[in-house]
Fold this sequence. Notes:
Elements: H1 2-16, E1 53-54, E2 70-83, E3 88-101, E4 106-117, E5 129-130, E6 134-144, E7 151-160, E8 174-185, E9 188-198, E10 213-225, E11 228-239, E12 255-266, E13 272-283, E14 306-314
Antiparallel strand pairs: 2-3, 2-14, 3-4, 4-5, 4-6, 6-7, 7-8, 8-9, 9-10, 10-11, 11-12, 12-13, 13-14
Amino acid sequence: MKLVGIILLLALFSYKSHALVDYSEETTSAPRRTFTPSSSDSSPAASTGRASPASTSTSSARPSAAGPIVFAFSPRYEVITVQKSNRESKVRATGLEARINSPWNLHLDMKYAMYSTDDKELSEKSGSQPGNPEFKLGIDWLDFGSAQDRTTVTLIAGASLAAKGSTLGSSRTDKIIGLETTKRFFWAGLGLGYEMYLTGTPAQESEMAIGTIHHIYAGLDFDVSPDISMGIMADNFSVGNASDSTRANHLDENLSFSSVATSLTLKPQGLCAIELGARFNTKRVQSPESLASARLWNLPGAYGNTIYTGLGISF
Length: 315
């Protein structure tokens, strides 16, 4: 009963405050921002807590055909550094990433964050503001091999829902479609993926209208020991212009940005995993503050470097 109480308190805290991965059939993992299944060791200490950035992405054990539904979630805290021409600003994100795995080759990823900043140029409001709830349904089109050399191909469909009454969360609703593949190499794993965001029209006139977003990503993670794993993930986003928009505030040229994230996950006991990580821009937009009104805080690397931490729990 005490354990259930702790889990409920964590979930409540995450809701009030702010991966992508493949899962092995025999281990229970907590969310992390990198991919791939863990080893075939079924003991709790061998769990790998995979999750993204961010990018973010979440991970847990994938049950067998006759197994129960598995739920994993991770409270996360991020600090985004926005590089301006004469100074730096900080945007803080506190939220929750979660995944539900079913026995029917389906899984559901969920992500939500609250944002805050002290920079009045980025937001006139103080305190936490709602971000965009995001839901992605994954369908395993192909899934073969043992836990040590497993290969998967997953179709993705989802949506990023509009935020209400926020100057940091977007007032658009975007549709998401994508394709992801992962491959396990015993103690390491590789993942590749593509997503397309079919952006909607912002409800607020102050928000910048943008075109279609294309997201290409790749991740590699490996187990250093039964209690430690490391990961690296690269993301590239291309944002299309909205020159055909009749709105005064619209993006009039295509832009792109890239970043690389590194993470360290500690698994002191089987139920939880502690993740520490940082994301660094490898390609920046020329003027991040001019893109602030597009409200792309949910896209890793859109505005600057990021440090983050998370606590993953699964059951």
